[in-house]
Amino acid sequence: MQLPIEQNGSITIASLSGQIDSVNAGELENDIMHLLDGGTLRLLLDCADLEYINSAGLRVFLLAAKRLEQSSGQLAFCTLDANVLMVFQTIGFDRILTIYADKNAALEGMNAASAKAA
Amino acid sequence: MPLFKRLLHGSLSARLVLTIGIPASLFLLVVMAWVGLREFEHTLEQTQREAQDMAQLEAVKLDRVLAEAARVPEVHAAVLESGALKTEADVQAYLTETLARHMDLLYGSCLAFEPHQFSPNKANYCPYVYRKDGKVIFSLLQPPDYNHFDWDWYKVPKKNQQGVWTEPFYDEGGGNVLMTTRTVPLFRKAVGGDPASAGEKVFWGVATIDIALDSLIARLDQIHPSRSGYAFLISRSGRFLYHPDRSKVFNSHIKELSPDLAEKIHAQPEGFLRMKDPHLGLDSWIAYASVQHGGFTLALVYPSQDVFSPARRSALELAAVALLGIVGLFGSLTFISHSVTRPIRKLADASAKIAAGDLEYPLNTGTRIREVHELTLAFGKMTRDLRLRMAQLQESSMLKARLTGELNAARRIQTSMLPREWSAHNHWPHHSDIALHAVMQPAREIGGDFYDHRFLDERRVSILIGDVSGKGVPAALFMAMTQTLFKGYSGPHVTAVDIMGRVNDALCDETYTGMFVTLVYAVLDVESGEMEVCNAGHSPPVLLSQDAAPAPLQSERHPALGLMRNYRFTSSRFMLKPGEKLFFYTDGVTEAFNPEQELFGLARLEHLLLQYGDLPVDQLTQLIMNAVRDHSDSEEISDDVTVLAIKLSDQSSAI
Q1: What residues in B contact A22, CB-CB < 8 Å?
Q2: A56, B471: Cβ pair inside 8 Å?
């Protein structure tokens, strides 16, 4: 899939787009695991262009969240489409993952959270 | 050229044969033709040399005889002019004696004088000796029989003051022989009155000899320049003196038979010509040379067919050799090219066999041609690699078959974990008022969807429908674990909330794969219709009642199982009225895409449920499954699809 990557300070911003379903969830998993293997600790997934996701895609997010939790990293999401947000909420991901309205709010929020943790 | 090109597009050996054979044959033919031409030229040169030599030789022989004869009248002149012969008797004796001495050469000899100049009393003094029957006869020629003053042999030398050879003639009176006469003038010293002319020479008479040409030219019969060649001799005027056809002798002129030849001979005293011969009319080479004494011309005729017959024969031999050479050349070229291309043709045959699938077909690597050897080795390697690859492919397809077999076995196990058809419970009178039907369609051999329904006790039936995130074997194992946990924790006195919490905690320990389960767990009291529903991140079931549109059950929403440890679940309570149905489904239904990338969607589902809500549960579930399959159409079904419907019978309210 080759996620478009953008670096903002120590935060890596990856943009998700299109549809993530059972067919291509494996590619997303490879991409994100590759980022984490490469030492990314603070990951913001920008969902501005993400049209659709199902439980197979969410499993990848859960996997990433668990790995970053173990390594005291940060994972956040921003700019969720209404449908995508509904899926997050239906499955209860909004309770375990950090979701911001937009990218600026996300960067601000993540920096504030890490400052607080420090 | 198109034919040549076409030939060159044939087999390798044909190309070799033609590209070498044709130029080599042409070269051979050119060489042979050149040699043949040279042979002809050489033959012609040789013939010319021989012919001219021979013509000259024969001419000289004739000339020598004539020259010897010509000396006789000169001697006569000298003898007379010396005054040695004084009387007629002296003359007779001298002539007779001379002729007798030259019998072999001379036919006759004559002296003729001016009137009264030898014998003062004789106007005509012309003594003549000739040969007859081997004897010498003497006679005096005189009028009226013969008047020597009328004859050219006397008039011409008198006029020219020098000797001449007369044109040959037939001596019809004498021996009927062809003769020629040499006549020379005689002179005496002037005497008497005129002092001015004293001491000058005065014409006195002539001395002649006759030569019979027959004996001279008889030997020309012996001359055969070639098989059908011949000689002929002509006089100065062109009259035939010798000709193989005797009737032509003396009677024909060369001018009559061959004016061209006559002209050439007249123009040039000797030569070598090509033209039709005057006797046989054949194309011939003619060599001729002049005989100085007598003014004859001797010609030798070589018909071309004779001249060139050896050359032609050797040309034929050359042609035969060339033909044999070409045949041999093509034969050996064919043999060589066949043996050279045999390994290539074998390789081509072998590759055709191998291409047809016979990978075991042996390749002959014994060839001595390096390129072919390398090609064969490379081809052999390719074949071996192909065999290896095929073996690997076979192995991997065997592996795949084994995996497929194992997956099928796994599917059977998974299917066996699902509850049996609800109809099996029909014999249980307590529950005849419930209708329940479920259908599951995994996207692959085994899937992550599951459902369950079982009686917890006499009155309560539990319904479970869930969807493990992900697919395939990991999802199936996770599903099996979840289902086992539910089976293990469920019991007569356990609440839905308790079971949810315990299963969630157990699953949270196992989520290193990131897997989680969304599910709805419902417990229905079949007698009261009271229902406890607990929803963990799953699509809410749809309630179908007679007096309202289908609507999702608004139960409290909780996170999926496996996400949050120690989460405290709560349940919502509803009343299911008799005749009402509750429709459970996994997101494989609403999230099925069609080829236009449109979702099946909740609205479509609710619309179908409104339209066909009155159907029996088994038909309703099947209808929804079919609708989802039709929607997906050619699009691969990417997710497991599960539907379950339960209906509380109308009769229960009557009870």
Answers
A1: 443, 470-471, 638-639
A2: yes
